[in-house]
Every structure is written in C-alpha cells, then in structure tokens.
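Batch job 17 of 40 flagged for manual review because the log was empty.
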Amino acid sequence: MNREEDIIKLIQQMCDDDREEEVVRMIDNLPDEERTYKIVGLQARTLSNLAGMIRSGYTESELNPDDLDRRALSILADTAEEGKDDPNWWCRNGYTRMGLNMEAEAIPFFEHVMTLIPDDPETQEFWSDVPEAIENCKKTVEFLEHPTLREPPYIKKRSVMIAVSRVDDFTADMQAFRNRLGDIAGLESLEFEDVSQNTETNTIEHVHGQFCGEPFDMEIDRLEAFNASGMFISSYFNKQDLELIGQERPGYGIDIRFGTANPLEWLHLQLKIATALVPKLLAIYDLSSQQALSESYVVSTARSSSGPHASFAYSIASESNEQGSDTWLYTNGLARFGLPDIEIMHSDANHSACHRKLIEAVASYMLWHQAPETQQTMRPDVPFAIMTGNVPLYIRLLPWNEAIKDGQKDKATPGSIRTRLKKMNANSCVIFAYENEDAMAADAYQPLWMKDDFLTNDRADDLRLLHCEEERKFAHDCSNEYFWLPEHVAKRTPEKVWFKFDLTNDEGEVEAVWTRLISYTDRHNFEVEIDDTPQALPYEQGDRLRFVDEHDVKLISWMVETEQSNINPGNIYILDAEPSIKRELGIE
C-alpha cells in the first residue's frame, strides 16, 4: 500500500469517527507532493459534509458552514482539469452548491454525472442518489420561483395525541374503553373494528360513528416507546412528573379527524377519550400542536363542563436569526380545525410579547368563529385591538405565499420562501395591518412592523384586544364553574382574592377591570378596590366599589394568591398537581 492509499484509509476512518475538522487540518498540513488530486478531492468532500453536519445541528462548531462550502468549491475549481472526466468531481460540485442554496446551478453538475457513469444496473444503483438530487433541485427551483400551498402533513390534517400512562407496563382494557366511550355525551352510532392482529401497523382499533351530528373517525395505536423531546410544555407539571416525561415511555396514540363545527368541542372530546383510554395518565403529547399537557390539566379539563380554553388548542413557536434581530412566530395546531395557522414575521425581542398576545387573540377569534370567511381573508370590521394612545389596530390575514412572494429566495431567513421548503407551507396566514378605516375599506394593507412603535413589550399591558361574545361567555362560565375556590378563600382571607369584571360607562363602552377584594359576604354582597386606572371608565386606581344585593355582576375571571402560584380558572388544575397549595388554602 502506497502513501496516498494510507492517507485515504486514514481519512475514511477519521470521518467514520466524526472527526471531519481534524481531517481538514491534517490535509492542510500535508506537504505539497502528498496533496494529490484524490486527497484534495476528499478534502473538498469533507468540507462539504462538515458544513452539512453543522447546519443540521449534528456537530457543534464555531465554523461558518457557508465558508466551508465556498472553500470546497475553490478546491474543486483548482482541480477542474483533472476532474473533468471524474463523476466524483462533478457530484461534489453539485452537492456543495446545494449546501449553498444554489440548486439551479447544481442541476447541470448532477446531470453530467449521469453521462460519465456506465449504464449497468449495479453502477446505476450505486449512483442512484444523483437522480434523486436532480429531482429535489428541480422541485426546489420551481417552488422558489412559484411558491404554492402544499399538502399539509398528516398531523396537521388530523388531531394526533399520545396518551402516556404512569404505569410502565400498562395495557389498555379495550372492552372497558369501548364502554366508557358510550358514556361520552355527543358520541353516537359507534362501530368498533379490532385490527390488533395486523402486525404491519401499530393500529389496534378503528372507531367510526357520529359526534354532535358530524362524522366521527378515530384510530387507536399502540406505541412501545415514545420520546417527548422538543415538545412545548404548555401546562403545569410538578417536579416529579417533569422528570418522568423526560424519559422514553410507551403510550397509546389517539388519532381523530375533527369535524368542521365547534372546534373546541372536538378538542374537549379528544381529552375525554384520552382519559377513558388511559385512566392513570402521566401526560398527553399533542403532536398536532407540538405541546405536552399534564395529567392534572387533562383530567380537570376532561371533567369540566366548560371545556378547554382556546390557548390549549395550539402552541406558538419561534425561530430567530443568529443575531436575534429577526424572529418568526407561528402557531402549530390550528390546521386540524380547518383553520390556517397564524404567523407574524419580522418580530424581535422588543416586540414579541405584544405579537404573541395578538396571535393568541386572532387564534381565539378564529376558533370561536370557525367559518370560511374567517380562514384566509379575515378582516374584522372593528379594530382588533386598541393600542397605546387609543390607536385602533385593524388587521388582515394574508396567505403566506402572497405575503412573501417578493422576498429573497437565496437566504434561509426566518419565515422566508426557502424556509417554507420544509415547514409552514400549507394553509398558513401572516398578520398584516391597515393604517386606518379608509385603508381597510380599500384593502390597502401594510406589514405589521409598520405598527412597531405601538407594539413594544413595555406597552403590552396597554394592548386591549378584541374579545368576542362567545369568548366572554366561556370566561364567565369557567369563572362560575370554579367559583367555589375564590369563595372559599374570600371567607377566610379576602385580601388574597382578585375579581375581574366587565364594567360599562355612560356611553355603553365595556372594559374589563381587575379589582382586589376588600370584604366578602357572598357573591352578591362584597367590596373591591380597583387595581389599575381604567382607560374608558370614570374610575381611578384605588377607588372602591361596593356591591349590595347585586345579582347582575359580570364576573369575567378571578385570581387567588398563594405562596407558590396564583390560581385562576385557567390553571385551577394546579391544585391537583401540588397538594401543598391545597393545604395552604385549607382545602381537603
């Protein structure tokens, strides 16, 4: 074996051990006579591979992957004469250009590879990745030139949750599960198909029927092991459960195609089904919204009459550039309801709080008003929010491919056309704004960042968002359903209780106001102190309001202070997760 062969063998071994950076340095230090065409060709390949490993997160490095690819191209250019008949040289040129988002330039290099190799089946099979690369490049070029909505992935078309048990060797009792399903209100005409004998899939049961007059279609899958890494923790987990959800555990998949009406009732149904299937839950992993839900939240919500809050129907993800100056916010989970996911582009650390509140308000509005006109061109004819200085904010939803059609195609900045190659390329809309009512009438929208001066994080508390009547009714129902808690605490320590009311001024304007409880007899007789000066009401911070035999109090929410956490209707399930809070409040 000669020196060149020894070096090639060493390079291969080092690459097998993920030591690409060492390979590059080693070849750099070789004397000129040992830097043969084959050796520097392998250096170009290693540089390109290392760039890909850094981009994917497989390898941590301070090296710039684009610089590595550009150096690889420089090496290949220096060996163009020697490589003109070498398919490896042409192939490396193609893949390196793909790494630099130069797909259109990569195609001719890949195509030339196929002219240099024999057409026997064995050789064609060895080079089969090249035709695939050509096809992928062509699809990318076409998409970048003509961005169009793509077919959503499976977990966006259906609602897929994994129910994980606290019991390590838990096996669901399917007959008991069927019986429990029959007790769920709204489920009718159920038909069960046991497919557990089919070893080619994980599906063990198909269920069909009706739910609230719409077709019901569900699959139950058995999963031997599931890892929840990457899931957003959207509900409260106690310390012990947080440790458990970090482990790989078996579970059952609950896969449902939601109906087109009453979105939150379908979500409520799925939570009820999860508790019927796995009685001793640890958690639910909602794959469609990419979030983990705790046992205490799921069980409490499944049992409640009011159901889940709209904020648990989705999660908000964020991606930023390296400098953190450009952030892309987008939801996961709305598509399963037949709604577009919602995005805000070009956010940043100074505006993200207001932007998140705006996304939450838009998502909630859509979930309560699920109808075709709300899906892609939503334009409420009233301000969606009142910003600082009583400036109205009128919004417009624009499908993503229209929103970014004039954007750069060669850069993978957050939310750009290129990032849509792999995500958020189906039914998704970007929030735009109108300057005023006249602009709204003319549909002359503008980017949301034009309102940045009004949407800084320090003004988040001043942002008053549109709340529809259905949402207000939900808040009222939740507050009443769990009112036993603030009433229990108010009779012992009223200063720990806060009430939020809808109050009306002489012009009929309604504003929700937080107040601290001063004294309490019953829910019709109490006294409160206003916590903050309202914007549209004739009250100031510190003013007191006394209610005597008042039977028309519009209670929107309440809050109970505890040493560990403030409890409200939306997180009352924490009491089941933390017995110490119950003891503090004197609850058995």
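Reviewer: the log was empty due to a logging misconfiguration, but the result itself is present. The first strand starts at residue 159 and ends at 165. Unflagging and moving on to job 18.
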